[in-house]
Write a structure and sequence with these properties.
Chain lengths: 400, 256
Amino acid sequence: MSATAVLERLPSHFGPYGGVFVPETLVTALDQLELEYIRAKSDPAFVAEFERLLREFVGRPSRLYFAERLTRHAGGARIFLKREDLNHTGAHKINNTIGQALLTKRMGKPRIIAETGAGQHGVASATAAALFDLKCDVYMGAEDVRRQSLNVFRMKLMGARVIEVQSGSKTLKDALNEAMRDWMGSVEHTHYIIGSVAGPHPFPTMVRDFQSVIGKETREQMLELTGKLPDYVVACVGGGSNAAGIFAPFVEDASVKLIGVEAGGESMNLGRHAATLTHGRPGVLHGALSYVLQNDDGQTADVHSCSAGLDYPGVGPEHAYWKDTGRVEYTSVSDHAALEAFKLLARLEGIIPALETAHAIAEAVCLARRIPADQTVVVNLSGRGDKDVQEASRLLAMQS
Amino acid sequence: MIRRSGEKIAVLPFLAAGYPTLDATVETVRSLDGVAGVGAIEIGFPFSDPIADGPVIQEAFNDALKSGVTSQRVFQSLGTLRGKVSVPLVAMVSYSIVFRYGPERFVLDAKEAGFSGILVPDLPPPEADVFCAMVRREGLQTVLLVAPTTTPERRQQIVKLCSGFVYYLSVSGVTGERTSLPTDLVEKVRGLKNATMVPVCVGFGIGKREHVQQLEGLADGAIVGSAIVRKMREHRERDAKSIAGEVARLVKTLVA
């Protein structure tokens, strides 16, 4: 096959959602990325290298853990935790950055940029950059720099530059805007590692694929531990990458119910939550058609969540498709309930979850309580809470 | 669609609608209508997340939104000029806004308000195909972007969709003035001129008379954005007529 042979392109939409809604400047780079990704995933050397790094560097497979005391506390279905928090760098984000950094190398680009909210994707990008000797700039909203100072230090320690974003609400969406603007001017020598299943095609597909290792492992581990597939899989949804990663390998299994948990924030009023699928409408943001939180004029709404990683007014387009088709049920959990779950998991299991993940824990406990003991619930424990202890202690002090 | 004065290159000023006020936008259009060499005026609809814009336009959009500017109010204000000015108006608007407004309704309201063309910078082909057909069906003109990174194959696909003019981005990057234009610009614009019969206008980074002159005999128009918005910011505390006068004075130096 010659190098110029026509490759079969990846589908750019999920039903009506997805697509490429970006200035022309970026289109060629997105095409190049898609072609490189198509070639890479059928290249045994690339796949072997990706798998080796996940095993030896990230520490995969991550454990599936039966949370006995949490199960007893809920008093219903058995709860299992998929321990993505035990990955190197402390969250699922590293699965994707290793994959995209390998692609960056293949494309011969010497620099990566990333946006980050909670800082987990920033840290995972900085880590991959150190590993592959890439220059790395991370855009982070000023509000998040404050909330997640530990992660800022980690990124800098690994040689990344953290660029504080002062525009807009100074959170994740503004970091994404700024990263896009950087990419508009640097696209010829820079790869933008989007950290979620959001953004223009091919990011939602590619990031889901890199994260699917979570769901594939969960499947095998559940079969091994319980002899059957789980009845429920629960994951938190901001942009939606940890959820897409654990859901995707179960989508064809009709018996497995999938539940995405969004950030309910302080109330249902626009501006006080980040529950895009629960309360939003279809719209265009950051390069894709999906659900968004906007006002009637199409301006992006303010959002709020106690967790920086869920504090985003959009969501990956495949989630929009799963919502409309009914394959995944989306619900939301308030700041308050998430903080309670944060404490609960720490006390009962000796595991401090990320505040993002605490939303999924809260929902899983409610769910397990409602269903019989012969059923199983897997929660994607997407990240650990070390980064959140300062912010959580501040929020808990305000509550008491 | 570009109003030409002789063979000279036209200047296309960009205004951030509603910045500093909708009155200032209306007055500025009125005064620029009287400046020979102004080929069309681009009206930028304020957007909360403009990823193609540099700090000057971002800030103007933010201020306009804070003061309560909406697409509907932009249409109402500019609609008052309908039939009173001859310079063509081009709406430059994010697809986020168009989608929420309803594409069909947006096109009809733009037409009603007297716009001649629509440019949606974050709607490249193939996503643009349906919307461009809709715009043309209503008798308005389409304007699409070609970037320095655009491949020749895509360039063909894009120019086929353009009826008003082709907007060539002089640089990869966001809007904002640059000290000099890229060295391969002449070659790139020539290539584009050869690929289409539709007029070619060049924008992004153009803020000085030298820049406009560099494009003379090469492109049909030069789009000036941030330099004008910055001028309006300097005079934002003044009344609409004075702001309009300052902008017209600036644009006269660019067309000279």
